[in-house]
Write a structure and sequence with these properties.
204 residues, single chain, 11 strands, Immunoglobulin-like, globular, 2 domains, four-stranded antiparallel sheet
């Protein structure tokens, strides 16, 4: 019930130079669980923003009244990576030893915010649900930890896809839950849900 809402939410998006450079933002209103209405959209060209500083932007909503006030910072991405299985980070014994020393008990209070990181190897899926009329699916896998999100490539026309990717996340809260969701790519339409698993970090 507000025309001037304040959210004060922070989100981290991993921006890679080989991806599209536009941040798309939509504002919606909800009357109830069934009715939603689009109040406007705006777009931010990431490449045009100065790096290593916080940019205060007032963005008018396209074709609708109102504007959004946002703080956007483009900074080097630390601790997050996507790689193939054959060039897996932490594969080098010397690197593993350095990591062990970095997170040993005697160094616990050197950097309180540096809790650690999580490395996830997404190998394959088996016997997925067929989402297409052809009896196949176009599956891809999305990994979410806190407000960090990374995803695999899509394997087309396959119910037993192999991704063989390695994902590395910095851990910000040891009580976070890793959520792994499989979707079916459906062209310009929203992807279809094929399944999900949730893994609390404390169970690893």
């Amino acid at each position: 019930k507000s025309a001037n809402p304040q959210w004060r939410e922070q989100f981290d998006f991993h921006y890679f130079s080989d991806r599209k450079d536009i941040l798309d933002i939509e504002v919606w209103r909800k009357d109830n669980k069934k009715h939603e209405e689009l109040l406007g959209t705006c777009h931010v060209d990431i490449t045009a923003l100065p790096t290593k500083q916080t940019n205060c932007l007032e963005l008018p909503l396209e074709k609708h009244p109102g504007s959004l006030l946002m703080l956007i910072a483009v900074a080097p991405c630390t601790g997050v990576s996507i790689s193939d299985l054959c060039v897996c980070p932490l594969g080098d014994p010397n690197e593993r030893q350095q990591i062990s020393q970095r997170y040993c008990i005697k160094n616990s209070f050197r950097d309180i915010k540096d809790i650690g990181f999580l490395q996830v190897k997404v190998l394959k899926a088996v016997d997925l649900m067929a989402a297409d009329f052809s009896g196949k699916s176009d599956p891809f896998c999305v990994l979410e930890l806190g407000n960090d999100m990374l995803q695999t490539h899509t394997v087309y026309k396959n119910l037993n896809p192999e991704w063989n990717k390695v994902f590395t996340f910095p851990i910000k809260d040891i009580h976070d839950v890793l959520e792994v969701t499989v979707f079916d790519e459906d062209g310009d339409k929203p992807p279809d849900f094929l399944g999900k698993v949730a893994i609390p970090l404390l169970s690893v």
